Amino acid sequence: MKLKAYFGSVLIGLALGATAQAQDYIPVLQYHHVSETSPKSTSVTPEQFTEHMDYLKSANFQVIDLRMALDDLKAGKPLPEKAVAITFDDAYRNIYQFGFPILKERDFPFTVFINTEPVQRKSRSFLTWEQMKEMQGFGGVFANHTISHPYMLRKNEAESDVEWLARMRNEVDTVEILLEDNLGSSPKMLAYPYGESNSQIHEMLKEQGIIAFGQQSGVVSAESDYLNLPRFPASGAYAKLATLKTKLNSKPMPLVSQESSSFYAGDLPVSLTLKFKEGKYRLKDFVCYVSGQGKASLDWVSDTEVIATASKAFRVGRGRINCTMPDNTGRQYHWYSHVWIRPGVDQGYILEKSEN
């Protein structure tokens, strides 16, 4: 039923080609808890979630299966106009209790990235395999969020680089096996816990044909990095419908390239170099914001290249620069985000250029 609905939407979008362009990108929403009693920073209440889903319905967004959408984008196939995908992280049981009925009523497909350790030990706070099987019958897809939800770039005490990478491989491979054994298949998608990854992990996933998501915000297109895709958080401070509307109507930033000296931040302010495609854009309205700092300074190297720099160094933890620019109509925004990690003392982060 879901396949028919999805391809039906695509055919409708193609039939409307004379009046509307097919969409070649997709915003992906990220949720965690659907509950009134879970941590507010990672939660939406059932009322808020209903409001979000009702808006998608009333505004004629086409909620489609995530993996199918990604495959189509990579193949250059059009998506339905106003396509969007819905995801959850961490396999909390309240997704089944309070989120699933809302999704089922609206016939919306969705993806849940599960960490399997609490599922396997039958934690009452997490989904069961039986609940997941039931959700599969109504558009639910279950993907990889590792076994234990580790900081993937941190080594254990006295652990070598080789041992660290082997542990990360096991965190991923074990979940793939459990998905196959308990649900019959894996969509070969992973969400990095805390959004952490590096080139070694990317290479490991590439070998297995796994698509992966970070925790930077933005819109997915054919030109995105499919080993570190963006999503828009829609919980906690990001649950307000007014701001969510802007994100749902966002487009990819028209970039030729983006460069940062490191994915780790240190004692100096971070910077980001963006080079735009040739074309007519509202570059005068381009702006970047640094988490906790306000606007980034912009140094235009040329008419199509800019360096965005934070005003001061990040604190320990994660920090980001979000950049937006209205499109030529002024009705939608191009969006780009980049995340850095500033390691704390003795947190054991893997060296960036380790060859071991």
TrEMBL record:
Q: Which PROSITE patterns match?
A: NODB
Q: Where in the cell is it found?
A: Secreted
- InterPro entries cross-referenced by the UniProt entry: Glyco_hydro/deAcase_b/a-brl, NODB_dom, Polysacch_Deacetylase
Q: Which SUPFAM superfamilies match?
A: Glycoside hydrolase/deacetylase
Signal sequence interval, chain numbering:
1-20
UniProt keywords, alphabetically: Signal
Q: Where does the source fall among the domains of life?
A: Bacteria
Q: What is its main location?
A: secreted
Keyword Chaperone in the entry? The reply is: no
Give the matching CDD domains.
Answer: CE4_DAC_u4_5s
Q: Where is the NodB homology domain?
A: 82-284
Protein name per Swiss-Prot or TrEMBL: Polysaccharide deacetylase family protein
